[in-house]
Design goal:
The chain has 138 residues and is mainly α. It has a domain of 80 residues. It is built from 4 helices and 2 strands; from the N terminus they run H-H-E-E-H-H. Strands 1-2 form a two-stranded antiparallel ribbon. The radius of gyration is 26 Å and the shape is elongated.
Length: 138
């Protein structure tokens, strides 16, 4: 009688084990961490990359200017880390430009999120530090 159910018991046991391991593998996965304090939590990957690229161009820097190196692999960046002061400065500058655009350029038909009038390049012109003097026009 035991032999009759042995194959079924083994197959059922294997299926249960596979099910448990599958559940455990999904439970171990976590959602990607975000440390967004200014940007919306649901920002699309493309929008995020476009914004970050605009910072690269406006300040003439690479991602490592604001983002700290990973402690696990120093060839990678830890985008969630707040270890670098420049990241907090960038957040303050983002807030400042959004407030300027909202206060001074808030036309009811104008979308300040789509086309900012004042942006990083307005003052930085491709340099890490904003220009302190207005360039003369000759």
């Amino acid at each position: 009688m035991l032999m009759k159910y042995r194959k079924k018991t083994i197959v059922l046991s294997v299926m249960v084990c596979l099910f448990v391991f599958t559940i455990m593998s999904f439970a171990g996965r976590r959602q990607p961490k975000h440390n967004f304090k200014i940007l919306p939590q649901d920002i699309s990957r493309d929008s995020l990359h476009n914004i970050m690229h605009s910072f690269n161009v406006a300040l003439g820097v690479k991602c490592g200017f604001c983002h700290a190196k990973s402690t696990l692999d120093t060839t990678k960046l830890d985008f969630e880390s707040d270890a670098k002061e420049e990241k907090e400065i960038a957040r303050a500058m983002m807030t400042m430009t959004m407030e300027i655009n909202k206060k001074y350029f808030s036309d009811p038909n104008f979308n300040p999120n789509a086309v900012p009038i004042v942006s990083c390049v307005t003052c930085h012109h491709g340099h890490e530090e904003p220009e302190k003097e207005i360039p003369s026009v000759e």
